[in-house]
Amino acid sequence: MTVNIAVLAQKIGGSLRGDHSVEVDSIANLSKAMPNQLSFLSNSKFADDLKSTQAGVVIVSEKDAEQFEGNAIIHENPYLGYALAAQLLDNSPVQSAGISELASVDPSAIIGNNASIAAGAVICADASLGDDCVIGPNVFIGEGAELGHQVNVKANASIQHRVVLENKVVIQSGAVIGGDGFGYANDKGQWIKIPQTGRVIIGENTEIGNNTCIDRGALDDTIIGKNCIIDNLVHIAHNCVIGDHCCICGSVGMAGSTTLGKHVVIAGHCAINGHITIADNVQITGKSMVTKSILESGVYSSGMPAMANRDWQKNTVKLRNIDKLYDRVKQLEKSKEN
Predict the structure, then answer these.
(1) Is 238 a catalytic site residue?
(2) pLDDT confidence of residue 304
(3) Do 108 and 129 meet the contact criterion of CB atoms below 8 Å apart?
(4) Is domain 157-300 annotated with CATH 3.40.50.2300?
């Protein structure tokens, strides 16, 4: 499939400067792009590649367009322009509509128009799928689960009973939505399981990454807002509530009953304590450990960046002596007062 660059510019909200007859069929980096491909410049460190690129057209800012003589789609946000263009030129395989003979669909399940259900999928009793849903190979949809329109659940994912996925939710391969929360009581050393009777509700246009686990609530529901992006290998425990437009990066672990506001960004490998609140517009940098509520927007950090091993060893020795140093400072303060 090819797209005329003038048409493409119009669809992504940019203005074309150059040859309106050129067509492109894919996207590549500036340094590798060929005349049949589109590229983009959103980071100034790649500006030198703009001079030598062979791309048929480049999405650039108005300022960078001044340094480029080729075909240019001028966009106020080139990275956004690239994202929109990538959707138009996406050549990922598309699963055809229809229900495979090798799928298992309970007679009581409600299947919307134009649904696609692949081989090995299991749709349990009283589940409902809206129009244009795509259910990949070996997907499990539990009893009473509710999927809105245009939901896409990819291979080997598991949507447990009574989970609600609103319109245009994407669940990547291997994710488990609605597994049991980690609820146990201790009876003299013996762990007694507490049945988890809440649901998981995921808002529209949210995407959940590969092998991510979102636990169902113990009593109330675990809720994920709309237009959230949650990366691979994330764990969200029971009864968490995540606001709209949040971004949670890979390998984040979030304990139960945590509440996130809107537009929160949590970088990779962060650990979030349970029963705390994080305000709107908070950013938490990688490997941070959050043990208390954050009630004001801003950027928060606690992880220790990597350093040369010899420097780390020296700092560790100093840290071991910090109590002695503290005591000496206090003694000096007292002697100065006297």
Answers:
(1) yes
(2) 83
(3) no
(4) no
- Annotated catalytic residue, options 20, 161, 235, 238: 238
pLDDT digits (tens, 9 = 90+) for 71-97: 999 999 999 999 999 999 999 999 999
200-211 pLDDT, tens digit each: 999 999 999 999
In the chain, where are the structural domains located? 3-88, 157-300, 309-338
Class of domain 3-88: alpha beta
What's the distance, CA 39 to chain centroid?
A: 24
Q: Do the Cβ atoms of 276 and 290 come closer than 8 Å? A: yes
pLDDT in tens, 11-53: 999 999 999 999 999 999 999 999 999 999 998 888 999 999 9
Indicate the pLDDT class of residue 335, thresholds 50, 70 and 90.
Answer: confident
What is the pTM assigned to this prediction?
0.93
Q: Please write the tens of the pLDDT for every residue from 262-320.
A: 999 999 999 999 999 999 999 999 999 999 999 999 999 998 888 999 999 999 999 99
